[in-house]
Amino acid sequence: MGGQELALTGNDLIQLAKPNITDKTIDRVVQILKSGHLVQGEQVRRFETCLREYLDANHAVLVSSGTAALHLSLIALNIGPGDEVIVPAFTFPATANAVELVGAKPVLVDIGLRDFCIDAQKIEAKITSKTKAIMPVHEFGQPADMENIASIAALHNLKIIEDAACALGAEINGKMIGSFGELACFSFHPRKAITTGEGGGVATQDEEIANRLRIMRNHGIVAEKGIVDFVAAGLNYRMTDFQAALGYEQLASFDDIIAKRLEAAGIYDDLLSSIGWIQLPEKINGRKMVYQSYHVMIDATMSRDRVMASLKKSGIESNIGAYALNRLSIYRKKYNLKDVDFPNAVDAFTRGMVLPMGNHVGFKEIQSIAAALQKAGKRRR
Ligand SMILES: Cc1ncc(COP(=O)(O)O)c(C=O)c1O
Questions:
Q1: How many CB atoms lie within 10 A of CB 178?
Q2: 187 lines ligand 1 (CB under 6 A)
Q3: What global pTM score does this model have?
């Protein structure tokens, strides 16, 4: 690369993700910590109201993680042993793990390689008399094909739980992700656009479901006129008040957070377009992607793992995108799953890679990443 290459020292490491927490937000969290009100309380209610309004949902219920959101959603729909739930074969394992945890069977459907989300055309072949729900994942912040998925669900009387862990703010034809099914689950893990450290949320239009979620996240407690009763064997999936204050402050400036991600994605598109062995994320008509990750596919003639190792040497963090669930011991062994049935999931698992994304990634950083990728391309020759 000669003089063009930007040298990166250990201090300049470009992280995959970096929480965007302002001094104002930190001051607010300190205030809550000093107040002594730490567990679920006023701040959780405030963040819930803000989230509900943002999503245009009737109810938002905050919980301790995205995984807790998925688990509680399945519980709220009374899904359990003997039931089947359709999930994409390529996702973070929490999607299918939640189904296992309620004693139901996750039934894998392959993904499409344009959006890396469940292939709606392949869902019906997997529906049986035991199928109760479809759990589409909006992978990397790209909306799944919700219009077709909703039609299939309606035709077969199935519930939809959107795994929107990565997709707060994404839209399809102006309609918010999170409003296509009975329930939608979000994550506030530090890799996401808004973070509360750990945290999650569920959105629903249905009051009865919202009540069940609230009872089950809080030990099965119902309190009426000051009298506490335990009506179910619940969990403790509550978010703390200081986490909620963190989330509330970030949601207030969420439009700016998303705009910065879209801008970074545009710069990536420009600077990486000349590298022939990298396939860039696709823009799909009508779908607003929010780039939880900037996910690329590495040409089959290259080793994705070697590219990642080369980036690391240049001080750039990267990671695989998500997992082909059929390759994980738990699912491969339990359900005797074979690669041949999930070719796209396996392809994405072996060739996919995510690059740094967030407020800390601007033109200068992406220039360094593009240069490091060029260098990685030369190393293979
Ligand atoms: C698609 C998907 N679902 C669920 C989760 C689980 O969320 P959490 O880490 O908040 O439990 C993640 C986390 O990365 C995810 O990417």
A1: 28
A2: yes
A3: 0.95
Ligand 1 geometric centre to CA of 165 (Å): 5
Which of 65, 185, 187 has the most ligand 1 atoms within 8 A of CB, as the residue to mutate? 187
Q: How confident is the model at residue 335 (pLDDT cuts 50, 70, 90)?
A: very high
In total, the chain counts a number of residues equal to 381
Q: Does ligand 1 have an atom closer than 6 angstroms to the CB of 67?
A: yes
User: 293 C-alpha vs ligand 1 centroid, how far in Å?
Assistant: 13
How far is 148 from 300, CA to CA, in rounded Å? Answer: 31
Please report which confidence band the pLDDT of residue 11 belongs to, taking 50, 70 and 90 as the band edges. Answer: low
